[in-house]
Amino acid sequence: MATAGTAGTTTRTGGIGGLFDRLLPDRLLALLSAILLGFVIAALLRGMADWPRLPLVIWPHLATIMLALALTPVMLLRRKGDRRHRVLGYVWVAAMAGTALISFAIRFSNNGNFSVIHIISLWTLLNVPLIIIRARQHNVVKHRRAVRGLVVGALLVAGFFTFPFGRLLGHWLFA
User: Fold this and answer.
1) pLDDT tens across 86-122, in order?
2) Full domain range(s) for residue 65
3) In a domain, 110, yes or no
4) What CA–CA distance (Å, rounded) separates 109 from 112?
5) Contact at 8 Å (CB) between 101 and 125?
6) How many independent structural domains does the chain possess?
7) Please, is 118 exposed, middle or buried when counting C-beta atoms within 10 Å of its C-beta (0-12, 13-18, 19+)?
8) Is residue 32 part of a domain?
9) Is the residue at 4 inside a domain?
């Protein structure tokens, strides 16, 4: 099954990608991103007393991830393919890449070693250039699949795991 995409391209909606689209439509991903951003903001506000004791590297990490979370609903719900989409898309991938790069300096758990979450950071850094290349090639299907993969994996799943297991945001939110 195919539907018309942006600029006369065709978007494939069958197979695994189509199932993924039906299970997690853009509106749901946008909503989940906005909810996660709300939880991050709530945790930050509840943890204000600890702010002076935080290592400096945490702040740019939080800033870039919050920017990506805020832009995700905008990017998923607005018209695609126009100049504004491209500009916001570059900001979004820069925020995602920045978050991933900064994460390699954050090793406070796991005895100062890298952890499983750093695999997602590496995956993000590998996918960011592919997202840009596929968009520039007007390969809507692969571009969309890569973006949605990062939203689910690097934003929502990784974001969820910042709350349990005694991690900082979870400690602030649920303490």
Assistant:
1) 999 999 999 999 999 999 998 777 777 777 888 999 9
2) 56-175
3) yes
4) 6
5) yes
6) 1
7) middle
8) no
9) no
What's phi and psi for 106, nearest 5 deg? -100, 105
Whether the CB-CB separation of 58 and 87 falls below 8 Å is answered with no
How far, rounded to the nearest angstrom, does the alpha carbon of residue 120 sit from its chain's CA centroid? 11
> What stretches of the chain adopt beta strand conformation (E)?
2-4, 10-12
d(CA 158, CA 112): 19
**What gap in Å lies between CA 20 and CA 145, rounded to an integer?**
9
Distance of CA 138 to the CA centre of its chain: 22
What pLDDT, in 10s, does the model give residues 16-43? 556 667 778 999 999 999 999 999 999 9
| CB contact at 8 A, 29 and 151 | yes
Q: Strands 2-4, 10-12: parallel, antiparallel or unpaired by DSSP?
A: antiparallel
Alpha-carbon dihedral angle through residues 25, 28, 31, 35, given to the nearest 10 degrees:
-130
Instruction: Out of 7-11, 112-116, 163-167, 168-172, give the one with best mean pLDDT.
Output: 168-172
Residue 81 falls within a domain, yes or no? yes
